[in-house]
Amino acid sequence: MDEFERSDVPYMVTHLDDIREGLQSLSRHFSFEDTMDNQHIPEHEETETQFNYIPERVSNLCDEQFAHVQRLVPPLCTFYSNNSGEVAPRHVTMCLEVGELFLSKKQLKSQLGNYAFANRFQIRVFKSDTTRYQVRCIVEDCNWRLRATKVQNSDYFQIRKFDNQHACSTKARFPHQRQASAQVIGEHIQEKFCYHRLYKPKEIIHDMQREFDISCNYHKGYRARQIVLEEVQGTPVESYSILSSYLYMLEQANHGTVIDLHTDSSNRFMYMFFCLKACIDGFLSSIRPVIAIDGTFLKGPHKGVLFIAVCMDSNDQIFPLN
């Protein structure tokens, strides 16, 4: 438990079969030899079995055999103590190297922001144009700097020079973290949305303070949450654009389902209704012939009203119709 975050445990439990399969295939490439020579082992006495590792057996292993296992195992964590003395897990910081390529200048800037964020210092832009990007440490006399240029006839940017030695104190380079933008915070909290479906801005603020000793306001935490939700779930516009396809697949999977979708002259959504075949059969066979309709106002970015029709079954329980 010390090497992984607690939030990673449910994810690993659900993939135990895949991990077990990968470890079994890995064990076939090792040789274990008992060197105890059948010696008598006293009862209730702890012993340690010795084994010999034969490197020739694993010299030709293919990484692809264990790629799915590597994806399931969470990254290693380091531990640090914050100001309150509480020990908290923190992911191993990323590395930048001379010659490293980035798909675009935007990706380079994003990676630099994450690098400064994880290593607790700030950067300032020294030169920036369409063909080059140079940054330095925010402290004036510090030696840390990085220079990247655009690769000819492409959109790639490559690191040409990188001096990774700081000559300034930690307090001078980290009074506040301006690289901790909503986009950067969103990239660091994206994994937590797999386990926290109601990850609130207050929790984001608390986790940033606990894990990185960074203070952010409620507005920045809210924007970071919205950025991650759009990346994970998509935007409402994208959801509305695939609504007709979803209804078609719903009807194909549930033959007899009633669907009614209306759009305006510009093919924009107006309103819709659907009722599953199972609900229709249940209503016709054993439900009281009394229908109650209720509605609620939608509070998202796209306003509207959601209506639902329900009945009462023989056990006086609610039976939905749509």
UniProtKB/TrEMBL annotation:
It holds the Pfam family DBD_Tnp_Mut. Residues 96-159 form the Transposase MuDR plant domain. InterPro entries: Transposase_MuDR. This is Transposase MuDR plant domain-containing protein.
